[in-house]
Amino acid sequence: MSFALDEQQLQIQTLVRRVAREKVAPRANDIDRTAEYPHDMFELLRELGLFALPFPESYGGSGSTLSACVAVEELARVCYNTAYLLIVQWTPIGAILAAGTDEQKRRFLPALAAGKQKVSISVTEPQSGSDVAGIKTRARRVAGGYRISGAKIWCTGAPFANFIFIGAKTGDDDSRGSINLFAVERGAKGLEIGRKEEKMGARGVPSCPLFLENVFVPEENRLGEEGRGFKAVMETFNAARPVHGARGIGLAQGAIDHALQFVQNRHAFGQTVGNFQGIRWMLADMAMQTEAARGLVYRAAGMVDAGVSGGELAPFAAMAKCYATDVAMKVATDAVQLFGAAGISAEFPINRYMRDAKVLQIIEGTNQIQRNIIGNSLLGAVAKL
Ligand SMILES: Cc1cc2nc3c(=O)[nH]c(=O)nc-3n(C[C@H](O)[C@H](O)[C@H](O)COP(=O)(O)OP(=O)(O)OC[C@H]3O[C@@H](n4cnc5c(N)ncnc54)[C@H](O)[C@@H]3O)c2cc1C
Q1: Is the CB of 121 under 6 A from ligand 1?
Q2: I want to staple 336 with a disulfide (CB 3.0 to 4.6 A). Which of 22, 147, 282, 343 is the partner?
């Protein structure tokens, strides 16, 4: 398997790197400080056609998860929140492709690829996050569809999504097999979007609770055969994980960029602190770890593009997400250390990188859960997850 970016991917890298530096970086601190959704950044990404990158060509996309990773990496290098706009839009692709009917694929995918519609996905509930099978939201069959009742938390992007894929159990069955995703339109009667969380990181894209009371959802909005939706949820997470890893390597690279600038300008003991060997070794470790993470992420993205899925993809997607986001946390923390007290001050952007990195270790399956997937795969038990 080759890890070199092709001509088109290099062009995307050059373009997004320039736009990130010129148009996104100047907005990054403000988005974090005000915690206001950056509509201007969504519009910029839409104009550039970046939402299309990982969607199949037959649905208006470019068909490349690796290109998607490259774009996310360049944006996350300067602004985690702007990179997040792409990821929120992409998270359900795997589920729609794995479980959607042809009609559903035609209905959802081109509109998302063009950035004409926005989407969110909501599985997490107050009593169950990692344990997806523990959700209690229930979809009861009625004439022409379902009525859904339950409560969700941490639904990212909900206030701006045209529709939200909501995980709910069907029938009276309580097993993981009874979970399906249902596309619920934002204005649906009985759906209330609660007040956004006050977050330490990922502040520019709101995460909100949802309250559902007898929300009617037509049959054609159920993703996958009834009682076979759990696989769709897992496919969603598998295919999206390399892209989350890409956000980790972008964030780590950005932290290194800031640290390099700082240590060359800060003086101590009659010289710049970048002259000290102890500092150079820290920088060398930060660069090595980031480069190693990049290799894992590109490999997992290449597997998605080659059509690898299910148990074969799961451990590699998990390694990419887990390692790259652990590296992001480690590198961002070391970068704050290199800044000294300035790293703690809100005057400098570096503490934003550390706060955002922490979020990455928790979302899309915590890094303990990623390690479970990898360990179970090593022991040949991935099918029982
Ligand atoms: C910024 C942000 C955005 C989010 N956006 C969304 C969204 O859009 N949609 C959505 O559905 N959810 C979203 N989430 C929720 C996220 O997916 C969950 O927080 C995550 O899955 C962890 O669940 P939890 O917080 O309930 O932790 P828990 O599952 O309660 O876990 C608590 C701790 O126990 C550990 N743990 C749990 N089980 C195991 C195990 N088997 N082995 C080892 N350790 C274990 C966890 O790793 C964690 O450290 C978001 C969360 C955040 C922070």
Answers
A1: yes
A2: 343
Q: Is the CB of 154 under 6 A from ligand 1?
A: yes
Decide whether any atom of ligand 1 lies within 6 Å of the 236 Cβ.
no
The DSSP line for 137-191 is: -EEEEETTEEEEEEEEEEEETGGG-SEEEEEEEESS--SGGGEEEEEEETT-TTE
pLDDT 10s digits, 196-214? 999 999 999 999 999 999 9
Rounded to the nearest angstrom, the distance between the alpha carbon of 282 and the centre of ligand 1 is 31
310 — pLDDT class (breaks 50, 70, 90): confident
Ligand 1: which residue has its CA nearest to atom 45? 368
The reply to whether 213 belongs to the active site is no
Q: From 381, 337, 94, select the one nearest 238 (Cα to Cα).
A: 94
The CB of 82 under 6 Å from ligand 1? The reply is: no
| CATH H-level, domain 7-113: superfamily | Acyl-CoA dehydrogenase/oxidase, N-terminal domain (1.10.540.10)
Q: In the chain, what are the domain boundaries?
A: 7-113, 119-227, 230-384
